[in-house]
């Protein structure tokens, strides 16, 4: 789910209600996810709305209704007015079995990446051989070196989007082997790898 364009992963979905590109959206982000989790089905839920916070709430609700397993929120919002409603829908997603990974920034409060119900991911320098660092008990838990991993020198928001897609691939791969894993189990997996 992205303001502007987006990708969504899940095991099974009928193409309808705003889900575009029936099975395989052709984006760089989908390619990053596909590299780690070739069996995942990837769908796109674009958001073209100036009120990004409210549009994110609606898009996440749609993903919940379609029983998606894993959703990448490629671009978040700083809209404080939408914060509580966005937090509620993220909690609802996790209760219903939809895991959320959201792009954010280490030094800024971006919603939904900073919520405890979401795995927050940012771009940053990482020395780990697998390309990411898990930061337990941090608001933004995962940091991926998008510039090194993808040789991508785009702006900060685009690098965070690449980083979120990269972590989505890891989590999608894990969920293929452990389809009923809780958010806590996913976090444990990220911490030990």
Q: What secondary-structure arrangement, pairings included, does this model have?
A:
Layout: E1 2-3, E2 8-10, H1 28-36, E3 41-43, E4 46-47, H2 52-65, E5 70-73, H3 83-95, E6 99-103, E7 119-123, E8 132-134, E9 142-144, H4 146-150, H5 156-177, H6 183-192
Parallel strand pairs: 1-4, 5-6, 6-7, 7-9
Antiparallel strand pairs: 2-3, 2-5, 8-9
In angstroms, what is the radius of gyration?
A: 15 Å
Taken from the alpha-carbon principal axes, the silhouette is globular
Flag low-confidence runs. 1-25
Q: Please state roughly what percent of the residues sit in beta strands, choosing from under 5%, 5-15%, 15-25%, 25-35%, 35-45% or over 45%.
A: 15-25%
Number of helices: 6
Order of helices and strands: EEHEEHEHEEEEHHH
Structural class: alpha/beta
Structure description:
This protein is an alpha/beta fold. The protein is built from 6 helices and 9 strands. It has helices at residues 28-36, 52-65, 83-95, 146-150, 156-177, 183-192, and strands at 2-3, 8-10, 41-43, 46-47, 70-73, 99-103, 119-123, 132-134, 142-144. The strands form 2 sheets. It has a 7-stranded mixed sheet with strand order 3-2-5-6-7-9-8, sandwiched between helices. It has a two-stranded parallel sheet with strand order 1-4. Strand 5 (70-73), helix 3 and strand 6 (99-103) form a beta-alpha-beta unit.
